[in-house]
Amino acid sequence: PAASLPKQAAATGEAAGEVEYEAFYRHWRRVKGRRREADADRSRSQWRWIDQVQEICSSTCGELDTLLGQLVSLDEQRQEVVRKTTALHEQCEQMVQDQERLSKDAESLAERLDFYDRVADVARILDQGTATTSQAELSSVLDQLDGSITFLEAHHDFCQAQAYLHQFEHLRNRACIAVRSSLQRSLEKSTAQVEQQLRERADGEGVVDTQVFYTRFRAAAVNHKPLMSLLHKKAQIHETYGTTLEELEAFYVHLRIRLVATPVTGHLQSVLKRDLAVSELAPATRQASSYILDVSHFERQCFEAYFDLRQPQEALRNLQETIADIFYKALRPVIISCDSIDSLREMADCLQMDILEPHQQGAKGDLMPVLNVVYRLHKDVQERLIFCVESYIRQDIRGYQVTAEDLDYPAVLFDADPGFTPAEADVVVGVASLPRGWFPTMRRTLGILEKIYRVLEMSTFQGLAQEAVDLCIASLKTGAQTLARRTLPSSGGASGQALSGLAQAVDSHLFLIRHLLALRERVAAFECDLVVSEKYFNFSNMWEALQLKLPDGLLGILKPKLSLSQVDSKKDIEAELKAACEALITSVTAHITQPLASINGQIGDFLSRPNVDRRQLKDQPFMAPDSLRAV
After folding, report:
1. DSSP character string of 159-199
2. What is the band of 125 on the pLDDT scale with cuts at 50, 70, 90?
3. Which DSSP category does 406 fall into?
């Protein structure tokens, strides 16, 4: 039994396993069946969904076909609307263009009609008389007139264009006349006020301030300068404006000249009084020149207060030239009547250094008309100075008469006596301070050249200097010849007479050498070449023609030759100095060697005798010891 238990247990276990397997298989088949049912249900559900979706798609396609048909119909309707809208827009645009064209035509007609309507408006403004008081209103009036005239001139074929053109030109002339009348009344009023002030001051103080002539005018110019500027701007548009402006400038200049001419003349006459000393001419000239420049400057400022400057400005130039001409007429008689070289030199130097050069550098043409007159006056002073210098050279250098005191050598080489008074001609040119030992003509020559150096033009100075130096050299040579012929006090004996002749020759040569050396030194100080070129006609060919030496062509007989020659005074001085030195050396050498030459000649004469015995030479009288000792 015990052995059967395990078998039983094993059998029991197998039976239990089979039971469990069957139970599991049944369970698996149930699960599989449910799975199959679930899959079938799922498949059926999907097909049902597919059928539903297919139905929905079919329904949607039908609706889309319906919508497409409606869209096609809507597009056809839209195209019809676009076509109608485009046609409407085209019609509107054409209407707008027609409207704009009509508006422009209407505006153009209105503008053109406005040119015709301006006649009444401008005439009304001119009748009121307010146009000349406001620059803006006058500018508007003139612009309207110029625009209308320009339009009518460009469209002369318009209806009544010529008639309206004449009316506008008449209105423009009226506007210019109104401006001219307004300024003329203002200028006449200012002139009357200034003349009243001048009469009151003449009755009272007697002294007139220069600013009295300009204060009233400058105050009144503030209201009229804009109108004159407007005329100046429009002068290029039409000649009427330029003519009006020129007439106003001429009227202004006429009033100014009438106002200031008499006071300026009186002031210049008070400065250049008749009893004016010669030494005061230069200060008076400087004062008068400064005064006339100040007046001209103030007149220019007053003119600019009314008018704009333009080129050319004939009215202003005429005003300044008239004022300067008053100065010229007042001063020229003084210059013509002046014979003092010093005063003329100072006046020329004053006009050049104090007036012309400073103002020419700084004025920039503002006072050029006045400076031109001052320059002309300066030339008159130079011409008068040249005339006086030429007269001085002719009378006091060329015509100088040598006196015994001038050649009293060696006394004149020493200082002058306390009571010595220089010659009147030396005082005239201020050369009394030069060394007294100099010959008077050289003192006067150098003195006059020092006076006129750098006062006259260099070419003129060179001509005068060359003439004066040549005459000085000639006078020195004449003085040397006179000195050589003078009679010295006799000292007795032949030796005294020989020494007297030697002294005369030596004094003559030393006199000339000394003066030529001094003259060369002083002339070299002038920074110029004393060279004068002279042109002259040579008629020598006519003389040859008379001797039957005919040139080529018959006209050559009557045709002189033009020759050119130069005179160099500095070279002449050197040549004369060289000649004087050589003459001195020759004279002194001849005097020293004359005794030896005399005894040498006697020896030659003795030896030249035929059959002479040379041993007897020592026994001749001229070979005596006393004679040789004398030699």
Report:
1. TTHHHHHHHHHHHHHHHHHHHHHHHHHHHHHHHHHHHHHHH
2. confident
3. G
CA 488 → CA 8, 219, 410, distances in Å?
213, 87, 12
Measured over the CA atoms of residue 413, residue 419, residue 424 and residue 428, the dihedral's sign is positive
Least confident of 94-103, 169-178, 488-497, 535-544: 488-497
Tokens representing 426? 């030396």
Q: Which pair of tokens denotes residue 411?
A: 């006394």
Cα 440 to Cα 438: distance, rounded to the nearest angstrom = 6
What backbone torsions phi and psi does residue 403 show, to the nearest 5 degrees?
-110, 170
Cα separations in angstroms, 453 against 380, 395, 526: 17, 20, 8
Q: Alpha carbon 511 to chain centroid distance?
A: 54
Do 187 and 252 contact (CB within 8 A), yes or no?
yes
CA distance 365 to 377: 18
Assign residue 548 a region (left: φ > 0; alpha: ψ between -120 and 50; beta: otherwise): left
E runs forming strands in 310-396? none
Q: Out of 46-60, 62-76, 121-135, 325-339, which region has the weakest mean confidence (pLDDT)?
A: 121-135
* The pLDDT value given to residue 206: 47
Question: Largest Cα–Cα distance in the chain?
Answer: 233
DSSP 8-state class, residue 125: H
List own/partner pairs for 446-450 with CB under 8 A and 24 or more apart: 446/519, 446/522, 446/523, 448/341, 448/389, 448/392, 448/393, 449/523, 449/526
* CA 479/CA 472 separation, integer angstroms: 10
For residues 531 and 69, the model is more confident at 69
The DSSP code sequence of 425-440 is HHHHHT-TTS-TTS-H
Instruction: For residues 376 and 353, give the distance between their C-alpha atoms in angstroms, rounded to a whole number.
Output: 15
Q: Nearest Cα to 331, choosing from 353, 347, 319?
A: 347
